[in-house]
Each structure stands twice: as structure tokens, then as C-alpha cells.
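Dear Dr. K.,

Following up on our conversation at the group meeting, I've run the structure prediction for 60S ribosomal protein L3 from Salvia divinorum. I'm pasting the input sequence below exactly as I used it, so you can double-check it against your construct before we proceed with anything downstream. Let me know if the numbering doesn't match what you have in your notebook.
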Amino acid sequence: MASSSSWTRKQNEQFENALAKYYKDTPDRWHNIARAVTGKSADEVRRHYEALEKDINKIENDQVPIPNYNDHRFLKNLKLQ
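The predicted C-alpha cells came back this morning:
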């Protein structure tokens, strides 16, 4: 079941729900999660999880710069809804 590396909002929601259902010690965890996420393989959901873990670790270790909200370029691109 091959697919592109991009994830839709719906797939991310399915992924989050499946993560809540299938804990780390669940047998065949990635296969179960993949069955819950439309169009994604076990390998794709595992890689997605690992990428999210890396992002969280960077944030927790202050390796992500805090945006400068006074930067006019940032404010110009900000879309308020």
C-alpha cells in the first residue's frame, strides 16, 4: 500500500486516534495503526511517528528558535481569521 509522504488533516486525525488506541506494547502496533490510517503503510506510520518524536525532542531541548513576532515580514505573512 504505497502512498506519498504527505499527510492530510484526516490522516493525521486517524493517526492520532490510532496512537491513543494502540499503546507501545501492542503487538503489531504499526500494522494496526496503518489499518486505521487511510492509504498509509506500517512503515509510513512508524516513520511519521519517529519524525514527530524528533520534533518534540528538539522543542523540549530548546533547539527550535522562538519566532520574532515583531518581525514585520512575519506579521505581513500572518493571516488572521
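Two things stood out to me. The chain has a mean pLDDT of 85. Residues 34 and 66 are 34 Å apart (CA to CA).

Best regards,
J.T.
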